[in-house]
Structures are given as C-alpha cells and as structure tokens.
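Before going further, learn to read the protein records used in this course. The integers have meaning only within a learned vocabulary of local backbone shapes. To see the layout at work, look at the sequence and tokens printed below.
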Amino acid sequence: MKRICDEIKNAGKIAEFHCCGNCSTWLIDEFIDIGVDIVQLPMPNDKLLEAKKKYGNRLVITGGFDRRGPASYPNAPEAIVREWVRSN
C-alpha cells in the first residue's frame, strides 16, 4: 500500500483510502505511515475525534457519521441535516 501511495503522490495526486467498516485507531496510524491523505470511514468510531486532534491537517477524515439519526430519514428537512452534520 505504501508503494501505491508513493506512486500516487509522485504523480502529483492525493492518496485516498476507503475503509468498509469501523477502522480502529491503529489503522489510522497506519494510513498516516503509508502516506494516505484522505480516509473514508463509513462507520462512526469513538476514536475519530482523538485521531483528528492527533493528526490535525495531516489527514482528512470523511464519513464517520451516524447514518441512522433523523438526518438520514427520507425528506429530512435541510435544517435537521445541517444541524446533524455540524454536531457530528
């Protein structure tokens, strides 16, 4: 994976990794070590805020929202969605 990330960066691109599941903190540490710039985490993780504080702008974390709340309901009002995104 590091060799792949190196090649992506050598081409002047951003390395993005998708994780289908709840990635533990040690995996986030590994992503940093191999050069991942963005990691997509589809499941909420109690350690996400801790990792974000630890790595700051070295890693963009996308996803990680609870998709079962009121903002996920069909036809959810925009105000509810905005509030949910800001609070998570």
